[in-house]
Write a structure and sequence with these properties.
five-stranded parallel beta sheet, 11 helices, binds phosphoric acid mono(formamide)ester
């Protein structure tokens, strides 16, 4: 039962709780009338201190499709945070006006702090370069729906593995499934943080770090491409030097398995060429749509209607 609980990190839910969410998401996808209006009278506060298209809009769409309503802000300049209000006070206020809070914040640990001060469940929609657990639910659901299961996969992560919160959350989550091999492909400046690597070692998860995407392609069941994030760099020259390190194009994808899938949390910049979009292995737009269904399942479960 996840009724009334916050979601700050990917491990906050057990594997069987996540499985129930995936089943519910599939049920909602297959029957658009299922749970319709079940959240009538409920309010979701969406507090976005950083830009977002998919996460914010899919949460809002999820809440509206379930008959609930949303309030909030899409950038901090329109909230009292711009006048110096603390996050704790902002959260206390939002909690007193709503039944659940979805928050994105540039500071690592902000979601944990919010959950401590909130009297209603807090859902982490991304805290700096730390975690993005609802993207992980989206990614896992996509793998499950397209392969039938999550286990027994070789998953390549490519791009900005240092600041990429979606990578950190997904790697931690995949480590809980059996027979997963992870290949981390990045320039040396953007390698996976040590704390994730030591966690994988402790859990005896097989992984390798590499710099070459082309040579890794034939091994992969899932390629998880990521954007080099300009907003996380202190130095523009470093960003410009690294931003186009990896560009997936038809020539590179031709070395991949016929049944592999290409995922990307989006937004993309240059790292996947638009010619890939029509390849049957490109699953990133499907993935974004699954994100809405899994968020519907999450809200219905957290707010206790299932
Ligand atoms: N995947 C993701 O978090 O996208 P947005 O930044 O558009 O929300």
């Amino acid at each position: 039962m996840i009724k009334g609980r916050s979601l700050v990190e990917p491990e906050d839910f057990s594997l069987s709780e996540m499985d129930s969410l995936f089943l519910l998401a599939e049920k909602i996808e297959n029957d658009e009338k299922y749970l319709r209006d079940s959240l009538r009278g409920k309010l979701l506060a969406t507090l976005f201190f950083e830009p977002s298209t998919r996460t914010r809009l899919s949460f809002e769409a999820a809440m509206l499709r379930l008959g609930g309503s949303c309030l909030g802000f899409a950038e901090p300049g329109s909230s009292s945070a711009s006048e110096g209000e603390s996050l704790a006070d902002t959260i206390r206020m939002a909690a007193s006006y709503s039944d659940a809070i979805v928050m994105r914040n540039p500071k690592e640990g902000a979601a944990l702090l919010a959950a401590r001060y909130s009297s209603v469940p807090v859902i982490n929609a991304g805290d700096g370069g730390h975690h993005h657990p609802t993207q992980t639910l989206t990614d896992l659901l996509t793998i499950k729906r397209l392969f039938g299961n999550i286990e027994n996969k070789t998953v390549g992560f490519c791009g900005d593995l240092k600041f990429g919160r979606t990578v950190h959350s997904l790697a931690k989550a995949l480590a809980r499934y059996s027979n997963i091999k992870m290949i981390f492909i990045s320039p040396t400046e953007l390698v996976l943080p040590e704390y994730i690597k030591s966690m994988l070692k402790k859990q005896n998860v097989e992984f390798e770090e590499r710099e070459n995407l082309e040579k890794s392609m034939p091994e992969l069941d899932v390629l998880y491409m990521t954007r080099v994030q300009r907003e996380r760099f202190f130095n523009e020259d470093d960003y410009i030097r690294l931003k186009d390190t990896y560009v997936l194009n038809p020539d590179k994808l031709s070395a991949g398995k016929e049944k592999m899938i290409v995922l990307h949390p989006l937004p993309r910049v240059n790292e996947i060429s638009v010619e890939i979009d029509s390849d049957s292995r490109a699953a990133y737009f499907k993935q974004a749509k699954y994100g809405m269904y899994v968020r519907m399942a999450l809200l219905a479960s957290i707010l206790g209607v299932v």
